[in-house]
Amino acid sequence: xxxxxxxxxxxxxxxxxxxxxxxxxxxxxxxxxxxxxxxxxxxxxxxxxxxxxxxxxxxxxxxxxxxxxxxxxxxxxxxxxxxxxxxxxxxxxxxxxxxxxxxxxxxxxxxxxxxxxxxxxxxxxxxxxxxxxxxxxxxxxxxxxxxxxxxxxxxxxxxxxxxxxxxxxxxxxxxxxxxxxxxxxxxxxxxxxxxxxxxxxxxxxxxxxxxxxxxxxxxxxxxxxxxxxxxxxxxxxxxxxxxxxxxxxxxxxxxxxxxxxxxxxxxxxxxxxxxxxxxxxxxxxxxxxxxxxxxxxxxxxxxxxxxxxxxxxxxxxxxxxxxxxxxxxxxxxxxxxxxxxxxxxxxxxxxxxxxxxxxxxxxxxxxxx
Length: 369
Known about the structure:
Blueprint: E1 4-13, E2 17-27, E3 32-36, H1 43-51, E4 58-63, E5 66-67, E6 78-81, H2 93-103, H3 108-121, H4 137-149, E7 155-159, H5 167-184, E8 187-192, H6 195-201, E9 204-209, E10 212-217, H7 219-224, H8 229-234, E11 241-249, E12 252-257, E13 260-265, E14 278-283, E15 288-291, E16 299-309, E17 313-319, E18 327-333, E19 344-349, E20 355-357
Parallel strand pairs: 3-8, 3-9, 6-7, 7-8
Antiparallel strand pairs: 1-2, 1-4, 4-5, 9-10, 11-12, 11-14, 12-13, 14-20, 15-19, 16-17, 16-19, 17-18
């Protein structure tokens, strides 16, 4: 069993540089939690404090209710795999992977079985006799990952472990990481800036930016109910579109166009104090409906300026031809209408997919249950 609780933890460098600010979250026993955010957001600092490699400036880290602030990495029963491989270059791949087991005094027979099992899972069986210096970066990273996972720890901490692998291999190794997590039944915290990795692997996602917690929840929670503009844009590819508009009433907003005022209803309501205020409407490119012609209040027209063919869909950049040349992205799934540049695109903004954000960039719609 291994539940992790971070309570109001801070990381302050050189007395005044804040790396992590008042971070509180829980990773439940046997959960796979991804920490997602841009470079410099505080992800690795958080992981290093959990590992005991960084001193915690303020706050507490607890494993199964026990404070571990003063414990070193060896006493926390954790496994680590970082973006830097930290391999023993004088040892073979086999011995690098076996090293944690030999340090615990496990028999040669058990060591051999576990090394070969993990090597098979991560496609390393053919290179066990080689030394790390003979390997490309992607293979070295897999060896580092294998060495971390072989220990069967209570807590596995993975910091960008797939960053040097090509896309095809990354997808394959992701599946193995999740499979090993399920097989061992341990708790895993995975740091990445790649949302595809986070979404495919995790039970929940924790999003950091500038060292502060933005949101934590399931993929569905974060994708469909982002708490602020940063989360709304950062999660989802392409990111959410944003358009300035005015609150007409607690349940609709308006956009002034050359064709007159366009009214958009949305699911839920906002506080009446926002009526008359300029706010930001957000809608995801994947959730914009494309129709043959206008007619409804929620339908906008625009000119297609860029068409990006993605194989399973097309991504259009559409210039809304009557609101200051604002451009938005629209995703057309495979089998949908094929557009050309300078063609008119009619778009339906459906109420359930509209998000609103105030001047502080906080989500303001209160959804009805």
